[in-house]
């Protein structure tokens, strides 16, 4: 069986297009991070510094205020560094990470278009209550999380979506290529061809998905760790823009990144199962890729277009929307929706059921291939 | 030693009946299925392999339905499909080792068996080449090698010699003859000489049915008295070629030698001849199936103009 697994894995892994896509993705992530570092600036006194030096300086400076965020800390940061702003004439950024945090999260700066320094004010009254008060009330642990914020965006959105596309391309051939190459006729007449052989195909597909997903995760995390170190991983997840306070969200930044990782993993496993089913239904790999991509995007069409029309009534729309939110495209993005923990669990359960059904369908469809 | 029983097996594709209520009992020996394209040979063989499910009837191996035997039956099986599939980027060795694993050949035996098969089909020197670099004949030989990998008790070969040159074809026939002891070998072809030399039983298939079955002697015996030899002039030969099923035609000086398959004496002066399997084929499958008379007529006209 191990030999079959190896060869099935080789068949998937020998697709050059997947590796080209993967190296392009990793290269782009590396390039993007380099750009982020290059363009990073902070001002200390009257001096503006850039790049890694600026990051180190910001980290050092933020470390002084690390820990629970209090009104006094905010006041101290404001008095010492003022608000963060961008000079509209020169395009220069003025401020550091701490001042930027309080400016972006506690002032009206985001409501104004290219605000002058004098126009920026702390939120007042209900604006403060609605937008900023929670940062001080919930025992937020403050620290430098700029890099993790960027990682959450890069990894949670770009990397996951690109990997989904690559997996669809790489795995669509698992069964469909056996039909198009006419090797199914031979394999299905071998002793293991209709049993263990099929499970090995599925295992190789999942193995490929998992190994690539883990490897990419390790690479992306490693290059960010290399630049930003480990500072801020134990800060509150609300510190990063993607952490939300309504639905379920792990407490720390590290927890949030792990949450993204697990959701991504669940989504990739489900995607693999669905692609396996599609692959067994299609007689050539190209058709399988097209059909997989179509199925992948159906939840987007539903939730953005059909669902809001409510043409199927409230109950059906709600049920279908939950189902769609459990599909790979949205399951991997669950961290952005503010779903309560029970709903996340429900979506994972739906995903599990669909995944099992997908593998089962793929198995029986391929096993029953009639030419 | 296995016994295969095909019990009133029918396969229907939408409105077309590909195999029509075929019943057979196959024991040790070589069974050669002869028939024109579309006669139902491949469909029947695919059902014997368990790839296709019969619409009705059943196939039993040693008394048990093959679907019930599942992997146990497939363990006995070696199959070379008509369209032999392979992975272009695999080497011959890798491909055979992979199939050996699929066929549950014990790991310690697999490498040895692969080398033995590569030697048998003359691909030992090319074992590390990617299959996409192989010629049609080499691919066919690889197909034969994979079918024999697990030392099958039931060997099913669909058009095994298509694409092979005469030397390879003779070599293949010898391999099959040597292997036929103690196993069931089923081969389908429309190349008459393939089955003529090695088949213990010949089965003629037409429109999904077995129209004739027996040893080569029995089958040819059925058309004894229906094969005629005649020497004709070019114009007469041309005319007779259009009228009768001609199994052989040869220019001999000014005259043309004709071998005619006909229930009655085709013309005065025609002498009865000893029938061969090609004559039997022609007798059952008619003129349009094999001899392409129209083409020959044109050829004859060209020759004598």
Question: Can you tag this structure with a few keywords?
Answer:
heterodimer, A: 371 residues, mainly alpha, two-stranded antiparallel sheet, B: 305 residues, alpha/beta, Rossmann fold, 2 domains, six-stranded mixed beta sheet, globular, disordered C terminus
Give the fraction of residues assigned to helices of chain B. Answer: 25-40%
Give the percentage of residues in beta strands of chain B: 25-35%
Largest sheet of chain B: 6 strands, mixed
Distance between the termini of chain A: 25 Å
- SS elements, strand count of chain B: 14
Count of helical stretches of chain A? 16
Global Rg of chain B: 22 Å
Return the domain count of chain A. 2
How large is the share of residues in beta strands of chain A?
under 5%
The count of β-strands of chain A is 6
Shape of chain B: globular
Proportion of helical residues of chain A: 55-70%
The CATH architecture assignment of the largest domain in chain B turns out to be: 3-Layer(aba) Sandwich
- Topology-level CATH name of the largest domain in chain B: Rossmann fold
Instruction: Spell out the helices and strands of chain A N to C.
Output: HHEEHEHEEHHHEHHHHHHHHH
Largest sheet, strands/sense/barrel of chain A: 2 strands, antiparallel
């Amino acid at each position: 069986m191990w030999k079959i697994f190896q060869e099935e894995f080789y068949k998937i892994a020998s697709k050059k297009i997947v590796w080209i896509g993967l190296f392009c993705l990793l290269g782009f992530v590396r390039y993007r991070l380099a750009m982020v570092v290059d363009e990073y600036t902070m001002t200390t006194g009257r001096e503006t510094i850039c790049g890694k030096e600026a990051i180190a300086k910001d980290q050092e400076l933020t470390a002084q205020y690390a820990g629970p965020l209090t009104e006094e800390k905010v006041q101290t940061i404001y008095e010492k560094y003022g608000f963060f702003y961008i000079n509209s004439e020169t395009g220069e950024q003025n401020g550091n990470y701490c001042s930027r945090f309080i400016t972006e999260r506690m002032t009206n700066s985001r409501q104004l278009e290219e605000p002058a320094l004098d126009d920026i004010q702390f939120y007042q009254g209900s604006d403060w209550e609605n937008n900023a008060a929670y940062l001080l009330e919930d025992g937020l642990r403050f620290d430098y999380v700029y890099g993790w914020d960027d990682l959450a965006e890069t990894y949670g959105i770009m990397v996951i979506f690109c990997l989904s596309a690559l997996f669809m391309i790489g795995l669509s051939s698992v069964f469909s290529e056996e039909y198009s190459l006419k090797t199914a006729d031979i394999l299905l007449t071998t002793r293991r061809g209709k049993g263990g052989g099929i499970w090995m195909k599925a295992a190789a597909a999942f193995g490929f998905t998992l190994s690539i997903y883990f490897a990419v995760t390790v690479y992306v995390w490693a290059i960010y760790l290399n630049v930003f170190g480990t500072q801020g991983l134990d800060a509150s997840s609300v510190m990063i823009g993607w952490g939300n306070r309504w639905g379920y969200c792990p407490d720390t930044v590290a927890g949030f990144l792990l949450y993204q990782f697990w959701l991504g993993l669940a989504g990739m496993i489900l995607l693999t199962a669905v692609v396996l089913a599609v692959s067994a239904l299609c007689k050539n790999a190209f058709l399988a890729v097209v059909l997989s991509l179509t199925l992948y995007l159906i939840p987007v069409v539903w939730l953005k277009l059909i669902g809001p029309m409510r043409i199927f009534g409230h109950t059906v729309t709600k049920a279908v929307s939950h189902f769609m939110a459990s599909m790979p495209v949205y399951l991997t993005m669950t961290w952005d929706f503010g779903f309560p923990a029970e709903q996340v669990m429900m979506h994972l359960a739906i995903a599990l059921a669909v995944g099992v059904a997908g593998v089962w369908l793929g198995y029986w469809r391929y096993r029953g291939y009639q030419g | 030693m296995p016994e295969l029983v095909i019990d009133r097996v029918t396969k229907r594709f939408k409105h077309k009946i590909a195999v029509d209520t075929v019943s057979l009992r196959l024991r040790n020996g070589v069974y050669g299925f002869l028939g024109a394209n579309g006669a139902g040979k491949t469909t029947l063989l695919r059902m014997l392999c368990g790839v296709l499910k019969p619409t009705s009837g059943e196939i039993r191996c040693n008394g048990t339905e093959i679907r019930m035997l599942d992997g146990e039956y497939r363990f006995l099986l070696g199959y070379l499909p008509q369209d032999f599939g392979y992975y272009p980027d695999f080497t011959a060795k890798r491909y055979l080792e992979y199939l050996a694993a699929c066929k549950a050949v014990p790991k310690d035996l697999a490498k040895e068996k692969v080398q033995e098969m590569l030697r048998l089909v003359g691909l030992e020197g090319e074992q590390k080449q990617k299959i996409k670099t192989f010629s049609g004949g080499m691919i066919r030989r690889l197909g034969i090698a994979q079918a024999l990998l697990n030392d099958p008790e039931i060997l099913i070969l669909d058009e095994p010699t298509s694409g092979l040159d005469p030397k390879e074809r003779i070599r293949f026939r010898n391999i099959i003859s040597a292997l036929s002891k103690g196993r069931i070998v089923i081969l389908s072809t429309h190349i008459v000489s393939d089955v003529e030399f090695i088949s213990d039983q010949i089965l003629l298939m037409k429109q999904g049915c077995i129209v004739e079955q027996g040893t080569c002697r029995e089958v040819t015996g059925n058309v004894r008295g229906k094969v005629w030899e005649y020497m004709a002039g070019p114009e007469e030969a041309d005319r007779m070629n259009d009228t009768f099923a001609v199994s052989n035609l040869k220019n001999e000086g000014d005259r043309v030698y004709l071998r005619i398959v006909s229930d009655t004496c085709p013309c005065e002066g025609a002498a009865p001849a000893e029938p061969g399997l090609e004559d039997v084929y022609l007798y059952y499958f008619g003129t349009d199936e094999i001899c392409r008379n129209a083409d020959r007529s044109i050829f004859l006209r060209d020759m004598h103009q």
